[in-house]
Amino acid sequence: MENTGNQPRRFCRKCLLQDMDEGQYFDDMRRYIDNLDEDLKVSSQFYDERLAFCRKCDNLISGMCRVCGCFVEMRAVMKKNGCPGIPKKW
Question: Matching InterPro entries, A to Z (predicted)?
Answer without folding.
Answer: DUF6171
